[in-house]
Automatic annotation (TrEMBL):
It catalyses: (E)-cinnamaldehyde + NADP(+) + CoA = (E)-cinnamoyl-CoA + NADPH + H(+). It comes from the Eukaryota. InterPro entries: Epimerase_deHydtase, NAD(P)-bd_dom_sf, NAD(P)_dehydrat-like. Belongs to the NAD(P)-dependent epimerase/dehydratase family. Dihydroflavonol-4-reductase subfamily. Its EC number is 1.2.1.44. Pathway: Aromatic compound metabolism; phenylpropanoid biosynthesis. The lineage of its organism: Eukaryota, Viridiplantae, Streptophyta, Embryophyta, Tracheophyta. One of its GO terms (biological process) is circadian rhythm. One of its GO terms (molecular function) is oxidoreductase activity, acting on the CH-OH group of donors, NAD or NADP as acceptor. Residues 8-240 form the NAD-dependent epimerase/dehydratase domain. Keywords: Disulfide bond, NADP, Oxidoreductase. Transmembrane segments: none annotated. This is cinnamoyl-CoA reductase. It comes from Brassica cretica.
Length: 271
């Protein structure tokens, strides 16, 4: 479906996943409003350098807890991609902006009568449940156990789950068409200069800070596929509900083997 210059908003536009969403939207002809903390910050320069950015990208200052700023930015948009989320394990600084930010974005989208809101959640809102039968296939109907996340102080998963629940509750109450994406661990080339949390997962092996690797298997997905998934569910009239984005399951040992193939000069663990 051609964009024909349609106007959309991407919250947290300078982030790892969001930057790729902005890039793809511009390439498909959309006009994009991106929310960032400080539009003048040099760390957002990578967005201005994207093809089509000069003509069809504007950056707007809008904090997750500033409803008026969010509402002003979203007003007039056909759709919203809500990717902004605090990346911290501190519940004091994470929970309020995660939950209320989701609510404020949905409220603003309802007021603006947008076509659809695409919400970036996480696999962390899906699979963290120790009481689930190990033979059960984890799919989009599954939810993490809030008490387990809280008791184990896994505030990232806790925050992702309550934020997504807040989004669903608000969307239902306001009559907003909401689609949620739950990606697994996201890897791939960053557009921004800052190193994000998921890339640290790989860098720890290359820097030598990880002397061994855990006997664990992780599921991964490429950031470019995640961005494409966001745009596809926005453009597809039949898209609804939740979508897990997953590509490849790799044991930590397999990850190290791949790194050794491409970066043999680095101090990679051998066990």
């Amino acid at each position: 479906m051609p964009a024909d210059g349609k106007l959309v908003c991407v919250t947290g536009a300078g982030g790892y996943i969001a930057s790729w969403i902005v890039k793809l939207l511009l390439e498909r002809g959309y006009t994009v409003r991106g929310t960032v903390r400080n539009p003048a910050d040099p760390k957002n320069n990578h967005l201005r350098e994207l093809q089509g950015a000069k003509e069809r990208l504007t950056l707007h200052s809008a904090d997750l807890l500033d409803y008026e700023a969010l509402s002003t930015t979203i007003d007039g948009c056909d759709g919203v991609f809500h990717t902004a989320s605090p990346m911290t394990d501190d519940p004091e600084t994470m929970l309020e902006p995660a939950v209320n930010g989701a609510k404020f974005v949905i409220d603003a989208a309802a007021k603006a009568k947008v076509k659809r809101v695409v919400f970036t959640s996480s696999i962390g809102a899906v699979y963290m449940n120790p009481n689930r039968d190990p033979q059960t296939i984890v799919d989009e109907s599954c939810w993490s156990d809030l008490d387990f996340c809280k008791n184990t102080k896994n505030w990232y998963c806790y925050g992702k789950m309550v934020a997504e629940q807040s989004a669903w509750e608000t969307a239902k109450a306001k009559g907003v068409d909401l689609v949620v994406l739950n990606p697994v661990l996201v890897l791939g080339p960053p557009l921004q200069s800052a190193v994000n949390a998921s890339l640290v997962h790989i860098l720890k092996y290359l820097t030598g800070s990880a002397k061994t690797y855990a006997n664990l298997t992780q599921v991964y997905v490429d950031v470019r596929d995640v961005a494409l998934g966001h745009v596809m569910v926005y453009e597809s009239p039949s898209a609804s509900g939740r979508y897990i984005l997953a590509e490849t399951a790799l044991h930590r040992g397999e990850v190290v083997e791949i790194l050794a193939k491409f970066f043999p000069e680095y101090p990679l663990p051998i066990k």
